[in-house]
UniProtKB/TrEMBL annotation:
Presence of keyword Hydrolase: yes
Reaction catalysed by this enzyme: hydrolysis of (1->4)-alpha-D-glucosidic linkage in 4-alpha-D-[(1->4)-alpha-D-glucanosyl]n trehalose to yield trehalose and (1->4)-alpha-D-glucan
CDD domains according to UniProt: AmyAc_GTHase, E_set_MTHase_like_N
GO biological process, one term: trehalose biosynthetic process
UniProt-recorded name of the protein: Malto-oligosyltrehalose trehalohydrolase
GO CC entries: cytoplasm
Length: 583
C-alpha cells in the first residue's frame, strides 16, 4: 500500500509507524516538493502514524479514520469494501425541502445507525434531503462538530466511516439525498496537528478562531488541494449529494482564482463524471449574490446560500425581539419580511446598525433563481447560540409556529427545517462540548458565561457546555409527536410540504413573480405565488385581508376559514394562516 504525507516542515526524515512498533523510513517524492512516500503492506483497519524527524508519532492529516479520537493513531480504510445497496442517481437542489440534523442529538443514542433507523418518517413527511451537521472527529463523545479535525474522517462515537455509508445508503433507499456540513474556515484547537506538518495556517490574516487557514500565502497550493480533495472525497466515497460550507466569509483569500471558485469548478466536474447532481451550499454573512452567481457570469459558482436576512425578518416579526442583529429588522418587521420575500436580502446596500455601516448588495430578481437561497425560521445557529438554546416553540403559540412554517414552506426559497421543528419540539438545543483538556474545558465554560453576562444574563443561568446533562436536554423527545399541539403541527407541516410538491407555483424559481401586500400596524401579510395566495395574520386580533380577484378555494388553513366573499376579503382568526387558490 502506498502511504504518503505532505510534510515540508520535516528537516531530515519522516517515519511511518505501522501498528505498535513497525517503523519504516519514508522517501522524499522527487516530483512533489514536501511530499514523502512509502510502499508498505497494510490492510483495512491497520493503525499507523507519521513522525517528523525526532518528533512524536502523529495522526495522518488525511486520515480516513481515527478509532481512538483526534489524538490517536490513524487507521487504513478500504473505501471499496462497502457494498452499496442502493443504485442512487442523485436528487437535485431545485424543488428540494431540506432538514438540518445533528447526529448526536437526533436520537438518545447519538449514532449514525440510530439516526438511520429514524429516517423513514422524514421521507413520509416529504423531506427530500437531510443536511448533517459536521461529522469529522472532535474531542470526547458529544459536541456540535464545529471544532473538528481530520477533515477526511468520521467521528468514531458516531460509528465511523462504515456507519456513515450505512446512513447514506439507508437515506438513498428512502429517496432522501444527504448533504454534509463541512468546516474549512478553522479547525478545532484540540487534536489539531496540521501546523507540525506544514503551513496549513497563516498569520497574514486573522479570524475569530485565530490564524487563518492558508489559502493565499506561501504553501497555500497544497493547503487548498487538501481542502478541495477532502470535499470531493465526501461526495465520491460516501455518495453524498451536496456539501454545506460553513462561514465562507471567514475564508480569507486574496488570490485571483479563489478557493471557492476552484471548489465549485471541481464539484461540477465530479458531477459530470459521476452523472448525478452535486451541489454546494454556502453559509455567508456577506449579503453578496455573487456567491451563487454562475462562474461564466463572474460569480463564485456555488449553487445556493443560507439566507439569514429572511430568518432575521421572520424571527423579528414573530417574536418582537430587537436585540443585536434583529434591531434593523424589528423597526418594521412585516415590511422586512415582505422585502426578503421579493428581494431575498434585506441588507442590499442599506445601513446596518448592528455593523455600523452599509451592508450587502442587491439581488437581481430577473437573473437570480430563488432556489439558490435557503429559507428557514430556525437553524442550529439561531437556536444554539441563544443563551438557553430555546426554540421558537418556547415562547410562540402553535398558531404563530404554523405561520412560521407557512412562510418557510410556501415562500420562494429552498425551504429548510431544523430537526424537531416539524412538530414544534419543546426540547432546547443548547451549546455543549466534551473537551478532554481541563484547561480548554474551563476556558470554554467561562467564555460562554462571559459572553452572555455582557447581555445581562446571570452566570449560573447559562448551561454548562461540559455538563453531560446539557447534551441530554438537547436530544429530541420522540414521544412529543403523539401529543397535542405537536400532532397538529406535524400534520400542518406535512400538508404544506405536500402542497409545495404538488403545486409548481410554490417551487417556481422566478423571484420577480412574487407579489406581496401587508399592513404593518394590523400585522398581516399576504403574498402571491402564481395562482396561489398565502395569507398570514400575526396579530392577536382577527384580520381582514383584501386578496382581491375572484374568490378562491381554501387549500390548507390552520384555523377554519371561509373563502373570500364577493369583496375579495379573507377573514383570518388571530395568529393563523391559510393558503388559497386563485379561484
Amino acid at each position: 500500500m502506498q502511504f504518503e504525507v505532505w510534510a515540508p516542515k520535516a528537516q531530515d526524515r519522516v517515519t511511518l509507524r505501522l501498528g505498535d512498533a513497525a517503523d519504516h523510513t519514508m522517501t522524499r517524492d522527487p516530483l512533489r516538493e514536501g511530499w514523502w512516500t512509502a510502499d508498505v503492506p497494510a490492510s483495512d483497519g491497520t493503525r499507523y502514524g507519521f513522525a517528523l524527524d525526532d518528533g512524536p508519532v502523529l495522526p495522518d492529516p488525511r486520515s480516513r479514520r481515527q478509532p481512538d479520537g483526534p489524538d490517536g493513531h490513524s487507521a487504513v480504510v478500504d473505501q471499496t469494501a462497502y457494498e452499496w445497496a442502493d443504485p442512487w442517481r442523485g436528487r437535485p437542489l431545485p424543488g428540494a425541502v431540506l432538514y438540518e440534523l445533528h447526529i448526536g442529538t437526533f436520537t438518545d443514542e447519538g449514532t449514525l445507525d440510530a439516526a438511520a433507523a429514524n429516517l423513514a418518517p422524514l421521507a413520509a413527511l416529504g423531506i427530500t434531503h437531510v443536511e448533517l451537521m459536521p461529522v469529522c472527529p472532535f474531542p470526547g463523545t458529544h459536541g456540535w462538530g464545529y471544532e473538528g479535525v481530520s477533515l477526511w474522517a468520521v467521528h468514531e462515537p458516531y460509528g465511523g466511516p462504515e456507519a456513515l455509508k450505512r446512513f447514506v445508503d439507508t437515506a438513498h433507499g428512502l429517496g432522501l439525498g444527504v448533504v454534509l456540513d463541512v468546516v474549512h474556515n478553522h479547525l478545532g484547537p484540540s487534536g489539531n496537528y496540521l501546523p507540525v506538518f506544514g503551513p496549513y495556517f497563516t498569520d497574514t490574516h486573522h479570524t475569530p478562531w485565530g490564524s487563518a487557514v492558508n489559502l493565499d500565502a506561501p504553501g497555500s497550493d497544497e493547503v487548498r488541494a487538501y481542502l478541495l480533495e477532502s470535499a470531493l472525497a465526501w461526495l465520491r466515497d460516501y455518495r453524498l449529494d451536496g456539501l454545506r460550507l460553513d462561514a465562507v466569509h471567514a475564508l480569507a483569500d486574496t488570490r485571483a482564482l479563489t478557493f471557492l471558485e476552484e471548489l465549485s469548478t471541481a464539484v461540477d466536474a465530479l458531477s459530470a463524471e459521476l452523472a448525478r447532481p452535486l451541489f454546494l451550499i454556502a453559509e455567508s454573512d456577506l449579503g453578496d449574490p455573487r456567491t451563487t452567481t454562475p462562474r461564466p457570469q463572474g460569480g463564485l459558482g456555488l449553487h445556493a446560500q443560507w439566507n439569514d436576512d429572511f430568518h432575521h425578518a421572520v424571527h423579528a416579526a414573530l417574536t418582537g425581539e430587537s436585540q443585536g442583529y434583529y434591531a434593523d429588522f424589528a423597526a418594521e418587521p412585516i415590511a422586512a419580511v415582505a422585502k426578503t420575500l421579493t428581494r431575498a436580502f434585506f441588507h442590499d446596500g442599506t445601513y446596518s446598525s448592528f455593523r455600523g455601516r452599509t451592508h450587502g448588495r442587491p439581488v437581481d430578481p430577473a437573473r437570480t433563481s430563488s432556489h439558490r437561497f435557503l429559507g428557514y425560521a430556525q437553524t442550529h445557529d439561531q437556536i444554539g447560540n441563544r443563551a438557553l438554546g430555546d426554540r421558537l416553540s418556547a415562547t410562540l403559540s402553535p398558531g404563530l409556529l404554523a405561520c412560521a412554517a407557512a412562510l418557510v414552506l410556501t415562500g420562494p426559497f429552498t425551504p429548510m427545517l431544523f430537526m424537531g421543528e416539524e412538530w414544534g419540539a419543546r426540547t432546547p438545543w443548547q451549546f455543549f462540548t466534551d473537551h478532554q483538556d481541563p484547561e480548554l474545558a474551563e476556558a470554554v465554560r467561562n467564555g460562554r458565561r462571559r459572553e452572555f453576562a455582557a447581555h445581562g444574563w446571570e452566570a449560573e443561568s447559562i448551561p454548562d457546555p461540559q455538563d453531560p446533562a446539557t447534551r441530554d436536554r438537547s436530544c429530541l423527545d420522540r414521544t412529543e409527536p403523539a401529543r397535542e399541539p405537536h400532532t397538529r403541527l406535524l400534520t400542518w407541516h406535512r400538508d404544506l410540504i405536500a402542497l409545495r410538491h404538488s403545486h409548481p407555483d410554490l417551487s417556481d424559481p422566478d423571484l420577480a413573480t412574487v407579489k406581496v401586500a401587508y399592513d404593518e400596524g394590523a400585522r398581516w401579510l399576504a403574498y402571491r405565488r402564481g395562482d396561489l395566495r398565502v395569507a398570514l395574520n400575526l396579530s392577536a386580533r382577527p384580520a381582514e385581508i383584501p386578496l382581491g380577484g375572484r374568490s378562491g378555494q381554501v387549500l390548507v388553513t390552520w384555523d377554519p376559514v371561509e373563502p373570500p366573499g364577493p369583496d375579495g376579503v379573507l377573514r383570518l382568526p388571530p395568529e393563523s394562516c391559510a393558503v388559497l387558490s386563485g379561484g
